[in-house]
Amino acid sequence: MTNRILIVDDQPGIRLLLEEILKMEGCETICAKTGREACDLVEELSPDLIIMDYNLPVMHGKDVLLYLENIDFHSPVIIITGESKESIQQEVDFPFVTDIITKPFDIQNLKDLVVGTLVHSSS
Predict the structure, then answer these.
(1) 88: helix, strand or coil
(2) Which residues face 29 on adjacent strands?
(3) Which phi and psi angles does 36 have, rounded to 5°?
(4) Alpha-carbon distances, residue 84 vs 15, 40, 87, 91 (angstroms)
(5) How far are the Cα atoms of 1, 24, 121 from residue 102, in angstroms, in the given order?
(6) Could you tell me if 73 and 97 are in contact, meaning their C-beta atoms sit under 8 angstroms apart?
(7) pLDDT tens digits, 94-122
(8) What is the pTM assigned to this prediction?
(9) pLDDT averaged over every residue in the chain
(10) Cα within 13 Å of Cα(49), Cβ side
(11) Running DSSP on this structure, what letter comes out for residue 2?
């Protein structure tokens, strides 16, 4: 079964990079530019993993996480951010957030993290 991953970032270059990397790993990808669009896609497509920027337009990343909590979302979320990991960790305390990585990120580390997260969440 192919894993469906929702990529949420307002920067087209980041979305394209992540989409290409994950497709090479055999994943199906869906992209959103805003937090509101991400919430709509979660309801419609039930992704196996979300990779999400924290500072999003229209609906901030924290609001997206609160929404996911309210709908009892169970798939893992990896946050990518330009802020420090520590500052985000102070704001985010959701069991489905499995990791926070900072931009710029190492592509190989991100691939390993995604594969490990998907394996762990499916077991």
Answers:
(1) helix
(2) 5
(3) -65, -45
(4) 20, 28, 5, 12
(5) 30, 22, 22
(6) no
(7) 889 999 999 888 999 999 999 999 888 77
(8) 0.93
(9) 91
(10) 26
(11) P
Backbone angles phi, psi at 107, to 5 degrees: -60, -45
Closest CA to 5 of 105, 23, 16: 23
What DSSP letter does each residue of 51-77 carry, written as one string? EEESS-SSS-HHHHHHHHHHTT--S-E
The DSSP bridge partners found for residue 6 are: 30, 50
pLDDT at residue 1 greater than cutoff 70: no
Residue 92 DSSP code: -
What is the C-alpha to C-alpha distance for residues 75 and 36, in angstroms, rounded to an integer? 18
User: Which domains, and CATH codes, for the chain?
Assistant: 4-122 (3.40.50.2300)
Sequence-ordered list of residues with C-beta below 8 angstroms from that of 19, at least 6 positions apart, any chain: 7, 29, 31
- DSSP state letter for 25: T
Which segments of the chain does DSSP mark as H helices, in order? 12-24, 35-45, 61-70, 85-91, 107-122
Token pair listed for 21: 């990397």
